[in-house]
Structure formats: C-alpha cells, structure tokens
Specification:
about 500 residues, globular, 13 helices, alpha+beta, seven-stranded mixed β-sheet, four-stranded antiparallel β-sheet
C-alpha cells in the first residue's frame, strides 16, 4: 500500500489545509495525476500521485488540516489490482443474456426479462464519473455570489486556469442576456393570455348554464352556509394573556445566544487561520518588538505625483522610498536565524494582502531595481494573485522587509507585528489634511502616518529612528525620489536600444 503524505512545501510551514480532492475512493490514478489541492498561509499547491493504482482510502477530508508527514490517503498499487482470469472471463460470457432473436420455444415474458437485464448495464457504461473542477476557494466563492456555474467558465489563465476576470466576464454576459430573455418570455406569454381569455369567456357561459340548473334547495343551503357569524368580543383577561404571549415571543427572538449557539458559530484555529495565529504568537513571544511612529509631510509629494501624470498609488511610492532607504540600513533589511543577525543583500519587499482566506504576504523581488511604473504594475498583479490563491513560491517567500497598509480603513498609527525571520515591518496609515502655521500664515498641508516596528534584539531605538527619518526625508523631498526613477527609465530605454542593435547584427 502506497501512502500519500503531506509534503513540506516551505521551511516555515508545518501544516496545510485540504481544499479539495480531485479523486474519490476507488478511482484509478496514474503517476503524476493531481490528487488534491492544499493551502498554506501563503499559497495553494497540488499533491500528485507518486505511483499508479487505485485510491484505497481518503483519511483527511476536505476542510481538514494535516501536519507535514501525515498520511492523507492510501493508494493500492497497480500490480495489486485484481485482473480477470480466463476462466472467470468464460463464466461471464456464458452468463451474459443472449441478444439474438429468440427461438419459437422462448416465451415473450422471458424475452422481456432479458431486455430489462441489459438496460442497467448499458446505462452504467454510458455514465462517466463527473470531473472535479479545480478552482481556488476565493474564486469559487465569487462564482457563487455572482450566480455563475463554474462548469460554464472557460479559463484564460496559465494552463487554462480560471481567473477572477473570467468569472466576472461570464457574469456580465449573463446580465446582458437577461433583458433579451425577458422580452422573449413576454412574447411567449401573449398567446397564452389570449387562450386564457377565451377559456375564461367559455367558462363563464358554462357556469351560467350550470347555475340555472342548480335546484332551489341547494342554493338556499349555500346562502345559509355563507351567512356571517355574529362578532363576539374577547374578554379583557384573554386579550391580556395574548399580549403577554406576544411580548414573550419578541423577547425570545432578541435574546442573547446561549452557550450551545455560541459553540455552533465557533471558528476553529485550523488551516490558514491556525497558521496565522501560530506565527503571530511565535513572533511576539520570540522577539522584543518596539514600535516607533512619526508623521511624513507629503504635500509636495502629492502635487508632484499629480503633475507627473503617472497613475501610481501611494503604496508603490512608499515602497520605492523604503527600497532606497533600506540600502543604507542593513540591520533593518535583515533576518534573525539560529541566534544570528543576517543582513540581506537583496531587497525583497513583502506586502500584507487582505484576502477571503485571511492575511497573506506577497513578495516583490529586487524592489530597489524597479521603477515606479513597474512597482505599480507588479504590486497590482501580486495583489490579484494573492486574493485568488495563485501566488507562486518565489512570490510568497524570501521577503526581507514587509510593508502593511491600513490607510483604506482610515487608520492612522498602529503596531504591526513583525513577519519572522525579518527584523522590521513598516505600517502605513491614511493620508490626512491638516492646518500648519508658516510665516505667520495658516496653510493647508497633507501628512502620512508611519509606524515602524523593530526587533529590539537586532536594532536599537536610535538606528530605527534614523531609518524612519531618512525614509520621511525622501517622502518630504520627492525630487530625489522621482529623479532616481527617471534615471532608471532612461537606463532601461538605453538597454532596450542596445538589445535591438544586437539582434539586428545577429540577423545580418
């Protein structure tokens, strides 16, 4: 018996959630066939069959969590599957009902029995097992909300995978087709209304004829039965009892849920929620975290951003400034492993993304080598993949410094928790307008709240404040920020020209 064990996908993940099984017990599988989809805090992966055979038992069902190395299912190897022996084959052939025309001695009842016995066999041969469509949980939920059958969606993603755009496209087509369908229904209803009108006219004539034939005794009996009963007023005591009963029902409807109800609504610490809970707890317990906060005046940056004509968001701008600042502060761009502080050469920024499955960190590799336009495009792509559960391994691991933003929720300062094994994390709040006194005059300004959490084991308060000050300096004097961006754009254009020249020389 072959055991299908939960593989170790990442060094920092010891538990995964079973999202969906693509096979059932008794199904035949080949080596390399996808068996199930599993999900960790940061990514969704597939587990493939290591050998051909038949699914013997599925131990961990859909929605259950398993630890690395635990057996998810067992496979009966192909060599152990029972094959039909020649003697058994002869017996099967002899026991099959004859399909030839019956002799004169065969009775009609026997012929009917033979035909009926063949029908279930033919039906079973034509019936094929339904294939399970592989779809990320977030996309499956979106399809349910938009009432889009997943079987009707043609995926345009990599290897034919369904994306969020595919689901919304099909939903839009269905909405456009709905008015046309209503028009057709109204046209079909018209002849039905006309026929109903004819029936009602004919029915009235028949009713009148039948009414005349009803004997006078029966008509009198009907009138007697239809007489209204005299109104009887209820006693005051009975009315009071009814009012008390009504109040009791209302009180029961708004009462607080009891312990049994609370238990039924409980959310277990399993799957992604369990991984997040464990990692956050470990982060706080195994490090000395300190948060420093400061305002960054972004009045000039806001006007420069609008004048540049570039459609760049604030997250991309802060990421650009952070990447430039980190190059001069190696302890902030570092990992702590096995009791050592390990400064990282690469600047890989992690971005906390809020998804239906919980918080996920998408990673942008070599962020210091990207222009603002490139940062904006890649951040949007990473956020979409994170929400759809489609992040690749290099897009969900290897971050050296993380940025998390709660600006969309009108939060100012907060205390972000470090993403191990990193030494720091930057929290970005919402931009607000304020009034400042300059040269005896009141002027309107804009400021951005920043919260830097550090691991005090690796970084002291003063170096952390220096990093935050340098970052604010870039944001408050955006000329250098945009200057470096323009230089990057020019260098890229020069490289493209060189590449074109090289390709032309090779062709000639």
């Amino acid at each position: 018996m072959i055991e299908v064990k939960l593989p170790k996908i990442r060094e920092d993940v010891n538990e995964s959630l079973v999202v969906i099984w693509f096979v059932s017990e008794g199904d035949a599988v080949k080596e390399g066939d996808p068996l199930l989809e599993i999900q960790t805090e940061k990514e969704v992966s597939e587990v493939e069959a290591e050998a051909s055979g038949t699914i013997n038992e599925i131990i961990y069902k859909r929605g259950e969590s398993a630890k690395v190395g635990e057996v998810l299912a067992t496979i009966n190897p192909a060599e152990n599957t029972q094959e039909t022996k020649p003697e058994e084959q002869k017996i099967v052939e002899n026991t099959e009902p004859e399909t030839k025309i019956p002799d004169d001695g065969q009775k009609p009842e026997e012929q009917k029995i033979t035909e009926n016995a063949e029908q279930p066999k033919e039906a079973s041969e034509q019936t094929e097992p339904a294939k399970t469509l592989r779809l990320a949980p977030g996309l499956r939920k979106l399809a349910r909300e938009l009432n889009v059958p997943v079987e009707s969606i043609a995926g345009t993603g990599r290897n034919g995978k369904i994306t969020e755009k595919d689901i919304r496209r099909v939903a839009g087509q269905a909405a456009a087709a709905e008015p046309a369908g209503k028009a057709e229904e109204s046209q079909q209803e018209k002849p039905e209304e006309e026929s109903a009108l004819e029936k009602s006219t004919t029915g009235k004539a028949l009713d009148e004829a039948q009414t005349k034939e009803v004997p006078e005794k029966e008509a009198a009996q009907e009138n007697k039965e239809n007489e209204e009963l005299p109104n009887e007023e209820l006693p005051e005591e009975e009315l009071a009892q009814q009012e008390q009963a009504s109040l009791a029902e209302q009180a029961e409807a708004i009462r607080e849920p009891d312990e049994d109800d609370r238990e039924s609504d409980a959310v277990p610490f399993s799957g992604i929620r369990g991984v997040i809970a464990r990692r956050m707890t470990e982060s706080l317990q195994n490090s000395a975290q300190l948060t420093e906060t400061a305002w960054a005046d972004v009045t000039k940056l806001d006007s420069k951003k609008g004048a540049s004509g570039k459609e760049v968001g604030w997250t991309a701008i802060v990421a650009k400034a952070a990447a430039q600042t980190l190059s001069n502060h190696p302890l902030v761009n570092a990992h702590i492993k096995e009791g050592q502080i390990l400064p990282q050469e690469a600047i890989n920024l992690g971005f906390a993304v809020d998804t239906d499955r919980g918080l996920q960190v998408a990673v942008l590799q070599d962020a210091d080598k990207q222009s603002l336009d490139d940062l904006q495009k890649r951040l949007a792509d990473l956020a979409e993949k994170a929400r759809n559960g489609q992040l690749a391994n290099e897009q969900s691991s290897g971050s050296t410094f993380t940025i998390t933003s709660l600006g969309a929720y009108r939060i100012q300062f907060f205390t972000p928790i470090i993403n191990p094994p990193e030494t720091a994390i930057l929290g970005v709040g919402t931009i607000e307008t304020y009034l400042a006194l300059e040269g005896g005059k009141v002027k309107e300004r804009k400021r951005l709240p920043l919260s830097l959490t550090i691991d005090h084991r690796a970084i002291d308060g003063a170096p952390a404040a220096k990093f935050l000050g340098d970052l604010i300096g870039l944001l408050e004097k955006p000329k250098q920020l945009f200057k470096d961006d323009d230089v990057m754009e020019k260098e890229k254009k020069t490289e493209k020209k060189k590449d074109k020249k090289k390709s032309k020389k090779k062709k000639s």
